[in-house]
Amino acid sequence: MRYVMARLxxxxxxxxxxxDLNNLxxxxxxxxxxxxxxxxxxxxxxxxxxxx
Length: 52
Fold this sequence. Notes:
It is built from 3 helices and 2 strands; from the N terminus they run H-H-E-E-H. The relative contact order is 0.10. InterPro entries: WH-like_DNA-bd_sf, WH_DNA-bd_sf. It comes from Vulcanisaeta moutnovskia (strain 768-28). This is ATPase.
C-alpha cells in the first residue's frame, strides 16, 4: 500500500484495490489463500521481490 501511495501520491480506494487484486488473480499472477495473496510463479516472485 505504501508503494502505491508513493507512486500515485494518493491513497487508492478500496474499490480500486479490490478490482486490481481480483484481476491479478484472474490472470494467475496472484493466488488467494484465505486472506493472503501469493505469487505462484517463481520467476515473477523473484522479479517482484528484487524490485523492492
